[in-house]
Design brief:
alpha+beta, eight-stranded antiparallel sheet, two-stranded antiparallel ribbon, about 30% helix
């Protein structure tokens, strides 16, 4: 069973191979709606908007406390390249999307399902196998022609996330001083143990520019594939192990 809905300002797709009805899928989409209502930087009624308006920490929800803690941890782990502060406001989008997909996957797993695919705007968590009983196939788009897939990777029980400028424009900035537009990277894809980990490190590595691949190379259990403004791809040593081989 597969369904796509527009939530959090993006298409979200849920596919569960062995789901007998829409019940679990409806629960997952209800969860994503709740995350959007809580963490959207664009909704004046969201808790994040209230935080930016001065809501004291003592009044934060446990989910907000957790996300802020994870953002602070990621900032430390990436030497400050992951930073949720921009123009005097807090925007947790660089972490919340992957975090939400991972939590949605936990909802599906807790319901007893073993084979599923959940995607929110390019952040993907897969488990088990697809309907044809093979690992899930995920395409990496060409940032210069989004109708073209440049690589197809096969994944099971992993997460994959891509950061880039080809859909939303310049929205990830180097917090260490480079001006917008100075980053030569156009897309940066990370495969990790789950989508939360892949997403947060993809955001930080993208901000690092050409050094991002070297950062991911040093992280055990992660692989990366980047494309720069000269149309040159750079990948970590183990990324090719996931690439689907064509006859």
């Amino acid at each position: 069973m597969k369904e796509t809905r527009i939530l959090m300002g993006m298409p979200i797709t849920v596919e569960i191979v062995d789901a007998p009805d829409h019940g679990i899928i409806d629960r997952v989409f209800a969860y994503f709606k709740g995350v959007d209502d809580q963490f959207s930087p664009y909704k004046e009624t969201s808790e994040l908007a209230q935080v930016n308006a001065g809501l004291p920490k003592s009044d934060w929800s446990k989910q907000m406390v957790e996300v802020m803690r994870l953002c602070d941890m990621t900032k430390r782990q990436t030497n400050g390249y992951f930073d949720i502060h921009h123009n005097g406001k807090i925007d947790t989008s660089g972490l919340v999307k992957g975090w939400a997909v991972q939590h949605a996957a936990q909802i599906v797993s807790a319901a007893g399902h073993k084979d599923y695919y959940i995607e929110a705007g390019g952040d993907i968590e897969v488990a088990g196998v697809s309907a044809d009983q093979t690992p899930w196939a995920v395409g990496v788009r060409n940032p210069f022609n989004t109708d073209e897939i440049v690589k197809v990777v096969q994944l099971s029980n992993r997460g994959i996330a891509t950061s880039g400028t080809y859909i939303r424009g310049e929205h990830i900035y180097n917090p260490h001083g480079s001006s917008p537009g100075a980053n030569p990277i156009r897309s940066f894809t990370v495969i990790g143990p789950n989508v939360y980990e892949a997403d947060r490190f993809a955001t930080a590595a993208f901000a690092m520019g050409e050094n991002g691949v070297h950062f991911i190379e040093r992280l055990p259990g992660f692989e990366a594939y980047s494309i720069n403004d000269r149309h040159i791809a750079t990948l970590t040593t183990g990324f090719g192990n996931y690439v689907k081989q064509t006859a």
